[in-house]
Amino acid sequence: MKIKGFQHIDLMKRDCGNEFEFQTIMWFDSLKSIVDFVGEDPERSHVPDQARAVLSRFDARATHYDVIDRRPQGLDNESIG
Fold first, then answer.
1. Is the pTM of the predicted complex or chain greater than 0.85?
2. Helices and strands: H and E segment counts in the chain
3. CA-to-CA dists, residue 33 to 64, 70, 71, angstroms
4. How many domains does the chain have?
5. pLDDT tens readout for residues 24-33
6. Distance CA 50, CA 35 (A)
7. Given 10, 61, 62, 64, which residue has the most CB atoms within 10 angstroms?
8. What CA–CA distance (Å, rounded) separates 27 from 69?
9. Secondary structure (3-state) at 43
């Protein structure tokens, strides 16, 4: 994907017994980059037609968070806390 301000996507899957639940986290440079991608309503979920064709349901609204801390792997756990 060539989306301005898009950094990467995390896709997670959880086995719920009779179905699977998926969650995505899309990382962007800014809220403006999200608006440029999805339009004037940044809380409208972006669910491509290919995904809609195989999903039984999905959340129509997205939630946005500001990252306040991100720790790289390999930190000495004894130095935390």
1. no
2. 2, 2
3. 12, 20, 23
4. 1
5. 999 999 999 9
6. 22
7. 62
8. 14
9. coil
